[in-house]
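Table 4 source record.
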Amino acid sequence: MKKNNNEIIKIVANNIHQELSSLQEICLQIESLLKKAEELEEEEKTFYNRAAGSMLHDFYTGLEKIFCNIASKIDKNLPRGEDWHIKLLMSMSETKKNRPEVISLELMEELKEYLGFRHLFRNIYGMQLNREKLEQLLLKIQNKLWIDIKLSLNLFIKKLPMRQPMRKKRKFIAGFTLVELLIVIIIIGILAVMAVPQYQKMVEKAKWQGPKNMLFAIRNACLMFYQERGFYPVVGGVGHYLNSGVVDQNLVNSIVVDITQAGAGRYTYIVYDPIFWRNVLFVRAVYDKTGNGYTADDDIISVGLDGTIAGPDYH
């Protein structure tokens, strides 16, 4: 089964972490060896050289394992030929199509010396190793080289281009979708059964409330009329201002106003909307002198559900 890019990167990253762990053990051994070097007797120095050479050999071999894994898994191009070791090392300082550089040019140049030593170590006797050169390479690892290598490899892992997985399109199952749809329909049906009648009642109530408020204002106007003049507006001599019945199914309780006032003068009597006081609800009563008093020329018959006023001049 072919592995995708993310799987390959995870494999490479895990390999790097494993090798770094092994290299850390080697670095601890190097530190211990350097401490003991000052106390060695002359006859023990040969064993020291062999141990130091072996550690340096293993150190670079561990790094080369990391480089080989990157070249084969990500680059898909592991160098061949007699000089493949140096080619591999140099390729790690290059940016490739599928990855950033693994190490810097400066670090690559430093590691060339360890690659060269490993080749030497494999082809000479341990007694021929130069102790001063060995200590120089060991101290270099301990002082800074190992830190630079760890930083470079960890940074390389972070820079690897992990691809975001594509979201799989949801496969809708017909039966499941139908169940969802039925549940929604049922909920809507329940809400309709409960809410629609209540809404209709509220609408109907609102239709009647407006005219009722207007008639209430008319009633108050008649009361004000009484307070100012001492009697209510009359109809045929009967003192009443609010009819108790409904004249029409589209009309709220009606009022008939026939205002008679003794005295002289001419005036207009207006009742305003109790909520929106700038709106005149009704009454434009102009009083003309008629013998003993004044009679209004407009009678307010009723207030309709739509807010209109019916009367001789309201059609």
